[in-house]
UniProtKB/TrEMBL annotation:
Transport found in the keyword field: yes
GO molecular function: ATP binding
The protein, known as: ABC transporter ATP-binding protein
Gene3D superfamilies: P-loop containing nucleotide triphosphate hydrolases
Length: 301
């Protein structure tokens, strides 16, 4: 795997306050990484350093082989989603996107602008509308459209779906997955844990300026829980006697009228159980996780 971002021993202090503490993190090309943590954890500071808004106190980073400075070469490969409050309210949508494309050294035709708007879920006819006349959700989508100007290889997105309706959230999620399929790299900061769980390949957790964990959601959950828990709804209900009869290495934690919660240490145990149930004419209606969720990990941080 080829790195898109390599962060090495990054520190940021303001006066005597340490904002970021010895952050080392590698993000690979073609993956979506979620950057999560409580308010004040250091997410925005890290993004501001990567995008050249702030400078680190110590440490270094490399973005697509460009070392730690927001030069013209870096600008060509990176797309950053700005905060809604930083938009130029009196500009029209078309002028704003054209203006941002000039800054990035790209050229947008009117057709390009219309395609960009449609890509993020905005109507092309909005191109002549002043930004101040847009709803909050429309402005969020415009910010994403701006990040896509010039077809950058790396997208850094800060809360891309906050304030959007369910349909728009789904549209953006599908767009991000499509971009990843095209080989784009995405660093996504979000408080929406469901969005992170459904979109991200790996998750980086910040707490009080420190990187406390990095990995897939499944790996992070297993690390804290140690085992997997599943709810199985079947007819008849699986019993301990049944498991013992076939020497299945599975423990029943609890049982209800039509379901059980089991504990397994290996995915092969799940496969073997389901195979055995079907062979013995059990009707399996549902198998779902009873594991911790990402929000449980954050709350426990």
């Amino acid at each position: 795997m080829i790195p898109a971002i390599e962060i090495s021993n990054l520190n940021k202090s303001i006066g005597k306050k340490d904002i970021l503490k010895d952050i080392s993190l590698t993000i690979y090309r073609g993956e979506i990484v979620g950057l999560i943590g409580h308010n004040g954890a250091g997410k925005s500071t890290l993004i501001n350093i990567l995008t050249g808004i702030k400078k680190p106190t110590q440490g270094s980073f490399v973005i697509y082989d460009n070392t730690g400075t927001m030069n013209k070469e870096t600008q060509k490969v990176i797309g950053v989603m700005p905060d809604v409050d930083n938009l130029y309210q009196d500009m029209t949508v078309r002028f704003f996107l054209s203006y941002m494309s000039e800054i990035k050294g790209a050229k947008l035709s009117l057709q390009n602008i219309r395609e960009l708007l449609e890509q993020v879920g905005l109507e092309a006819k909005l191109s002549n509308t002043r930004i101040k006349a847009l709803s909050f959700g429309m402005k969020k989508k415009l910010c994403l459209a701006q990040a896509l100007v010039g077809e950058p290889q790396l997208l850094i997105l800060d809360e891309p779906t906050s304030g959007l309706d369910v349909h728009s959230v789904l549209h953006i999620k599908n767009l991000l997955l499509k971009l990843r399929g095209e080989g784009k790299t995405i660093l996504l900061s979000s408080h929406n844990m469901e969005e992170v769980e459904k979109s991200c390949d790996r998750v980086a957790i910040l707490k009080s300026g420190e990187l406390t964990d990095i990995g897939t959601i499944e790996a992070l959950i297993y690390k804290r829980q140690g085992v997997r828990k599943l709810i199985i709804r079947s007819s008849p209900v699986v019993t301990s006697d049944f498991l013992n009869q076939f020497a299945l290495n599975i423990q029943i934690i609890s049982q209800e009228s039509n379901s059980i919660v089991i504990q397994v240490s290996d995915d092969e145990d799940i496969s073997l159980l389901l195979k055995t149930l079907i062979e013995h004419s059990y009707k399996v209606y549902e198998v779902r996780s009873s594991d911790l969720q990402l929000k449980d990990i954050i709350l426990g941080e």
